[in-house]
Write a structure and sequence with these properties.
Bound molecules: zinc ion
Order of helices and strands: HHEEHEE
Number of helices: 3
Helix content: 25-40%
Number of domains: 1
Shape: elongated
Radius of gyration: 21 Å
Largest sheet: 2 strands, antiparallel
Length: about 170
């Protein structure tokens, strides 16, 4: 594993921390005022560590479950990328994609699309993302209607991934 460095001073840093203790404490004091103590700082750090591990555990289990569910759909060649809406070819790399709040799942997406989207939100481009997709059109049996596109292939313009519920 790559050794991490403090974001402030570049010094060595504990695993899963962005700042060394000294820099973290300085940040803490800047936030909480100059009278805040080392003990308060430690207590807060401990609390956030606890929070981190519980949500990670819950997140991990839920994510695995959700991914297993989607894997069946992807393997059947029935899945469409949540980002570009093109089919996901079974056997290719895909991710279970998150909404911006990281609490909801958008559905599967091409690994490349997912990474591109993550990179796009990183700097200042929170502003103009493509407009939200309309809900997927479904036929009388509730199956998603595939819309052929001029560039070859076909898409399902799924917005909030309504059809994931039907499957
Ligand atoms: Zn530091
Ligand atoms: Zn895609």
């Amino acid at each position: 594993m790559r050794e991490r460095r403090c974001n402030d001073c570049g010094g060595p840093v504990a695993p899963r921390h962005r700042f060394c203790e000294a820099c973290a404490f300085q940040r803490f004091r800047r936030r909480r005022g100059p009278s805040s103590t080392w003990a308060q700082f430690q207590a807060e750090r401990e609390a956030s560590k606890q929070r981190g591990t519980t949500t990670e555990r819950g997140y991990g289990a839920r994510h695995r479950r959700e991914r297993a569910r989607w894997k069946r759909i992807v393997d059947a060649g029935e899945a469409f990328c949540a980002r570009c809406h093109k089919p996901i070819v079974p056997g290719t790399k895909w991710h279970l994609d998150h909404g911006p709040d990281r609490n909801t799942y958008l559905g599967p997406s091409h690994a490349s699309c997912n990474v591109a989207a993550a990179n796009a939100t990183r700097p200042r481009s929170v502003v103009a993302k493509p407009t939200p997709n309309p809900p997927a059109p479904v036929d009388d049996n509730g199956r998603v209607i595939r819309v052929p596109h001029a560039d070859g292939g076909f898409t399902t313009p799924t917005g909030r991934w309504k059809w994931s519920m039907d499957w």
